[in-house]
Write a structure and sequence with these properties.
333 residues; Nucleotidyltransferase, domain 5; five-stranded mixed beta sheet; 11 helices; globular; disordered C terminus; Euk-type_GlcNAc_Kinase; kinase activity; ATPase_NBD; transferase
Length: 333
């Protein structure tokens, strides 16, 4: 038996999938944050180590012919010390096969379609899009981070939600579902001196800015409940995200990945409605398991594997039937 390994290493979690070169899924693993750009390299390498060991289980690491690792900001591995840390973690698991690092956009796109050419939008805490050609990123758009961009994604949504609350505390607009949800969620200290506005600002300033992304689900909840302010934020978010895709698009399907544009969410539904109008009837698809997409990329990179479309159906489309263990609890941040 010959196998491949796929990893999707993000800022929140690391996931791994082990599959045979013929498309049978053998195991999966999950660990904590694995992006060395956003977290200490040793912590990211530990996540790689843990998730791979869980995915391998009792399987012989010597059977793995290739591993593909999807990583945002993968150029951080160009730093020798970081690359050495990752290589050491790879070897610690018993793997001796090559480790191929690709962008998170490559993996997200592969998790949605076997078509070699198209585009992908990732919208979670941040937002990025890419044009995909021959399964690799040909042009990237966005992904600037919370300070410079990521409009329409989690941090931006949280910031807009807090700004809506500040408009209430300043007396500019009346309270509503969204602002009541945000006020209840923030750790506002009633003993803090000053006005309600100053207390809200203090509550936000005492946390890392990216933690505003935790408020993003409240926008969806309020919009679903009919809150007009939340609905306006949803509309603007969808516009930002669609424009980001349009800047990278050059034909083929568009794959959506990330919690903000998940199926059934207000922003996800809006993007799925607006993109075909904006891009002339484009097919909009949803990404599946990123690590399964990475495993598929690994399998199709080998010279003697079956038809790529058949493999995609086996590894990616059927991932829900894969053997797995319950994920560990996410450590507090």
């Amino acid at each position: 038996m010959q196998a491949v390994l796929g990893l999707d290493m993000g800022g929140t979690a690391t996931r791994a999938v082990l599959a045979t070169t013929s498309g049978t899924i053998l195991g999966s693993g999950r660990a904590g944050p694995g992006n060395p750009f956003a977290h200490p390299p040793e912590q990211a390498a530990d996540a790689l180590r843990s998730s791979v060991r869980e995915a391998l289980g009792d399987h012989d690491p010597a059977t793995v012919r290739l591993g593909v690792v999807g990583l945002a900001g993968g150029n951080s591995l160009a730093v020798p010390a970081v690359a050495e840390t990752f290589d050491r973690a790879w070897r610690d698991t018993g793997l001796r096969c090559p480790m191929r690092v690709v962008g998170d956009t490559d993996v997200a796109y592969a998790a949605g379609t076997a078509d070699p050419d198209g585009a992908v939008l990732i919208a979670g805490t941040g937002a990025s899009a890419a044009r995909i050609a021959a399964h690799r990123t040909a042009r990237a758009a966005g992904g600037y981070g919370w300070l410079l961009g990521d409009d329409g994604a989690g941090y931006w949504l949280g910031r807009e939600a807090v700004r809506a609350l500040l408009a209430v505390t300043d007396g500019v607009r009346p309270p509503g579902v969204l602002t009541e949800l945000v006020a209840a969620h923030l750790a506002i200290d009633p003993a803090h001196p000053g006005t309600d506005t100053e207390r809200v600002i203090a509550a936000v300033d005492h946390a890392h800015p990216v933690r505003l992304a935790r408020l993003a689900p409240l926008v969806s909840e309020a919009a679903t409940a009919g809150d007009a302010v939340a609905a306006d934020i949803v509309t603007r978010a969808a516009g930002h995200l669609c424009a980001l895709v349009a800047g990278a698009y050059a034909g083929g399907p568009v794959v959506l990945s990330g919690s903000v544009v998940a199926p059934g969410t207000p922003i996800g539904d809006a993007v799925r409605t607006d993109l075909p109008v904006l891009l002339g009837g484009v097919a909009v698809l949803s990404a599946g398991h990123g690590a399964a997409g990475a495993a598929w990329l690994a399998a199709t990179a080998l010279p003697d594997t079956p038809d790529p479309l058949v493999l995609h159906r086996s590894i990616v489309s059927r991932y829900d039937t894969a053997p797995s263990t319950p994920p560990p609890p996410t450590p507090p941040r």
